């Protein structure tokens, strides 16, 4: 079926919710077997969490390269309609015949935008940069990496501000449309793939580890942005308290994971993510001491070779121990990591410039608006063979890395084709 649109109603074969690597893959794969898809993404950009990584294991290459290939395949694909700034309001019907109400947020900028950037240059209004986890500010009119379409977006909270007029006046292309309102679109789809991915576990809940209390305790997702060239410090990893260089850094594995009081499961990627981040530090600070506190190092398959390589570095120290407490040193903003060896019970204390909490992945699907018969497992991931007929892909199904998310997304399309075949 080709996509057909009339007024605010779209008819398609497959609705894909979530424009991360899993959702993008699913939409492209569906189109390559001749099926139409509508891809819905809540942010103004595609790529999900992967777009916010500095490099990704196992190759340590910039993830944007791979994402851009998919992005281009979507841009010139008339079988896929991409709707960003869009979320699902409600789903009714059943496999073969779903009716889905979508809510589209205003961008305040229309297709006349050439992304020339003149509006951003004159903009005096700022907002916390969500892409960088609030670690810096961005302008109220901005163009995120992987923006889809590749144009600017403006903040709803600022467009009515008198100072915003300067941005509008700077535009030579009549691209501002400040009267835009949120609108509803109805999609009739025969199958639904759910790929809404993950959010980091809220480190503020780990009150023994000092996140939010001590400036030099950060999380693994913050570390990705600190190391990224388009991050808050233009790629230089600096201590948040004083912007000083890092000479001694501690990675705290299983920060909240495999813990009945927080996330009972292992996210499967955090060990490899921290090993990867040791390489960011090593590249910038050849003499820095790096300490990894772990319960078990879990690097399945080929990632074991990566672990072996990192382990060979004489200044990277692995400590078998669960970090029970982090406190601040009395005369500096250094942090003291108190760890208990999980085999001997011995307690150790080590002072670091910076601590990085390796927090796990929480499935967004645990709180998404789904029909009542959509079942989740005990941890909040979407159950396979779901009674609702909704098909999960990527981290909506289970905590996995990119390679597995891509395979999972391809598999989800086969399940969707079976739904189409039966209807
Ligand atoms: C610190 C860290 C580092 C990592 N590094 C690596 C690495 O180097 N290599 C690797 O292979 N893996 C890595 N991973 C794992 C990797 O991030 C995941 O495998 C990947 O993000 C899974 O993609 P996804 O599409 O399933 O989910 P996501 O990347 O989370 O994408 C989901 C998309 O859905 C959108 N969305 C969410 N809710 C809604 C909604 N209600 N409506 C519409 N859209 C919605 C989101 O905005 C997002 O765009 C790392 C994980 C962590 C925690």
Describe this structure in words.
The chain is of the alpha/beta class. The chain has 2 domains: 181 residues, 3-Layer(bba) Sandwich (FAD/NAD(P)-binding domain); 158 residues, FAD/NAD(P)-binding domain (3-Layer(bba) Sandwich), CATH 3.50.50.60. The strands form 6 sheets. Strands 1, 2, 3, 4, 5, 6, 11 and 22 form an 8-stranded mixed beta sheet that branches. The longest helix is centred in the last third of the chain and has 21 residues. The radius of gyration is 23 Å and the shape is globular. The chain starts with a strand and ends with a helix. The mean pLDDT is 96. Bound molecules: flavin-adenine dinucleotide. Flavin-adenine dinucleotide binds next to helix 1, strand 5, helix 5, helix 6 and helix 8.
Please give the count of helices: 8
Total strands: the figure is 22
Order of helices and strands: EEHEHEEEHEEEEHEEEHEHEHEEEEEEEH
Q: How far is the N terminus from the C terminus?
A: 13 Å
The CATH topology of the largest domain is FAD/NAD(P)-binding domain
The gross shape turns out to be globular
Portion of residues in beta strands equals: 25-35%
Number of domains: 2
Unreliably modeled segments: none
CATH architecture of the largest domain: 3-Layer(bba) Sandwich
Task: Give the names of the bound compounds.
Answer: flavin-adenine dinucleotide
**Quaternary structure classification:** single chain
């Amino acid at each position: 079926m080709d996509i057909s649109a009339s007024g605010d109603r779209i008819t398609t074969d497959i609705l894909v919710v979530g424009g991360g690597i899993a959702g993008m893959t699913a939409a492209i794969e569906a189109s390559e077997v001749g099926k139409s898809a509508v891809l819905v993404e809540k942010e103004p950009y595609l790529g999900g969490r992967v777009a916010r990584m500095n490099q990704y294991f196992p190759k340590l290459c910039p993830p944007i390269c791979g994402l851009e290939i998919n992005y281009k395949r979507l841009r010139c694909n008339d079988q896929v309609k991409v709707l960003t700034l869009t979320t699902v309001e409600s789903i009714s019907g059943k496999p073969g015949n779903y009716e889905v109400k979508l809510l589209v947020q205003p961008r305040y900028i229309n297709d006349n935008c050439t992304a020339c950037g003149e509006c951003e240059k004159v903009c005096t209004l700022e907002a916390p940069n969500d892409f960088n986890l609030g670690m810096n500010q961005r302008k109220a009119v901005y163009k995120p990496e992987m923006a889809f379409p590749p144009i600017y977006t403006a903040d709803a909270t600022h467009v009515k501000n008198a100072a915003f007029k300067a941005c509008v006046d700077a535009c030579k292309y009549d691209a501002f449309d400040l009267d835009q309102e949120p609108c509803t679109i109805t999609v009739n789809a025969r199958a639904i793939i759910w790929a809404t991915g993950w959010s980091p576990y809220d480190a503020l809940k780990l009150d023994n580890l000092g996140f939010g209390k001590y400036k030099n305790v950060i999380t693994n997702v913050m570390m990705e942005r600190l190391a990224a060239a388009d991050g808050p410090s233009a790629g230089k990893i600096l201590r948040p308290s004083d912007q000083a260089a890092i000479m001694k850094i501690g990675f705290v594995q299983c920060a909240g994971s495999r813990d009945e009081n927080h996330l009972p499961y292992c996210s499967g990627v955090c060990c490899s993510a921290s090993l990867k981040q040791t390489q960011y530090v090593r590249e910038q600070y050849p003499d820095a001491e790096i300490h990894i506190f772990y319960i078990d190092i879990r690097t399945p398959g080929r990632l074991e070779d990566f672990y072996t390589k990192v382990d060979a570095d004489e200044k990277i120290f692995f400590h078998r121990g669960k970090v029970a407490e982090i406190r601040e040193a009395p005369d500096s903003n250094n942090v003291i990591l108190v760890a208990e060896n999980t085999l001997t019970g011995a307690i150790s204390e080590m002072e670091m410039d910076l601590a990085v909490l390796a927090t796990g992945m929480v499935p967004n699907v645990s709180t998404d608006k789904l029909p009542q018969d959509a079942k989740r497992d005990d941890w909040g991931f979407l159950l396979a063979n779901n009674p609702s007929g909704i098909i999960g892909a990527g981290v909506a199904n289970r905590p996995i890395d990119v390679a597995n998310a891509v395979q999972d997304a391809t598999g989800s399309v086969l399940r969707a084709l079976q739904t189409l075949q039966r209807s």
